[in-house]
């Protein structure tokens, strides 16, 4: 298959997503996961209320959110349409030096295509233990949620963020596949902001809001509490809390400062709803 054909197939499997709410609007890209109307995108692409998805042929549909995982920054949308041109998923990992192709809607340019190479695969400094597909490729706002594919057009990741000039991170295809199969991971139910600590290599996560009925509320965590770690280790990156939640599955012991006093609480982690944090 020629490069032009690969690009055209990816464009047909890429959608433009526009979300609107009372206070905000957002836009980005998404990938048609199957021919039955499943679309995968980044959670941060979606606003709070209505989501309009435009296909390559100009058709538009209002989408229903089937699952949303703010920890892994993924969302599953359902369109009232079938027979859609789904992307092909690659089931083996990428290697440094491989050619990759990204398609998206950066800065309003629909179906823009860029190329690059794989820089690496695995955790990225400062973003915790979660793995990323790291690509030397030039992306822009609006590419988020769109496909990163190999030279054969097979999906290897969902483009998520730009970490430096010419370097972007994508959520690996295997993680996307697991999300589609099992839905969102456990949640705590807080929004946090990182705060520098006096202690060496430590980080505090200041609670900005607590979701009503969430595990955090049920454990009496409050706005203004400063999360500093678990009973196993202190937090050193923003992603450490999300990693601890994912690894705990059922119960998690968190340590936090309330005023000048250090406290510890055991939190029963919930499997439904969403866990929100300030984006890195």
Draw up the topology in text.
Elements: H1 3-13, E1 14-20, E2 25-32, E3 38-41, E4 50-54, E5 60-62, E6 64-69, E7 74-78, E8 88-89, E9 99-104, E10 112-122, E11 132-136, E12 147-150, E13 154-164, E14 167-172, H2 173-182, E15 190-196, E16 203-210, H3 215-218, E17 226-230, H4 239-248, E18 251-258, E19 261-268
Parallel strand pairs: 8-13
Antiparallel strand pairs: 1-2, 1-4, 2-3, 3-7, 4-5, 6-7, 9-10, 9-12, 10-11, 11-14, 12-13, 13-14, 15-16, 16-17, 17-18, 18-19
What does it look like?
By secondary structure, the protein is mainly beta. The protein has three domains: 3-78, Beta Barrel (Thrombin, subunit H), CATH 2.40.10.10; 88-182, Thrombin, subunit H (Beta Barrel), CATH 2.40.10; 190-268, Pdz3 Domain, CATH 2.30.42.10. Helices cover 12% and strands 42% of the residues. It has four helices and 19 strands. A seven-stranded antiparallel β-sheet has the order 5-4-1-2-3-7-6. Strands 9-10-11-14-13-12 form a six-stranded antiparallel β-barrel. The chain is globular, with a radius of gyration of 19 Å. Residues 272-280 have low confidence and may be disordered.
């Amino acid at each position: 298959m020629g490069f032009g054909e690969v690009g055209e197939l990816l464009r047909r499997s890429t959608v433009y997503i526009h979300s609107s709410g009372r206070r905000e609007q957002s836009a980005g890209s998404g990938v048609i996961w199957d021919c039955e109307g499943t679309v995968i995108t980044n959670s941060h692409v979606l606003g709070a209320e209505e989501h309009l998805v435009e296909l390559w042929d100009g058709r538009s549909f209002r989408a229903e959110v089937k699952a949303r995982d703010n920890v892994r920054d993924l969302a599953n949308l359902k369109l009232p349409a079938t027979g859609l041109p789904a992307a092909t998923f690659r089931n083996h990992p990428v290697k440094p030096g491989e050619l990759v192709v990204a398609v998206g809607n950066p800065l309003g340019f629909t179906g823009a295509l860029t190329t690059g190479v794989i820089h690496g695969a695995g955790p990225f400094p400062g973003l915790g233990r979660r793995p990323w597909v790291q690509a030397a490729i030039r992306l822009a706002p609006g590419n988020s949620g769109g496909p990163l594919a190999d030279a054969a057009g097979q999906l290897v990741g969902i483009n998520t963020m730009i970490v430096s000039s010419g370097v972007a991170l994508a959520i690996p295809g295997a993680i996307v596949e697991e999300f589609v199969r099992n839905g969102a991971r456990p949640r705590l139910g807080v929004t946090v902001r990182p705060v520098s600590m006096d202690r060496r290599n430590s980080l505090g996560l200041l609670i900005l809001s607590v979701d009503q009925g969430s595990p955090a509320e049920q454990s009496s965590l409050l706005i203004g509490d400063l999360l500093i770690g678990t009973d196993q280790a202190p937090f050193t990156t923003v992603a450490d809390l999300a990693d601890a939640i994912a690894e705990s599955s059922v119960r998690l012991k968190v340590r936090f400062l309330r005023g000048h006093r250090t406290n510890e609480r055991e939190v029963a982690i919930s499997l439904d709803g969403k866990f929100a944090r300030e984006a890195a």
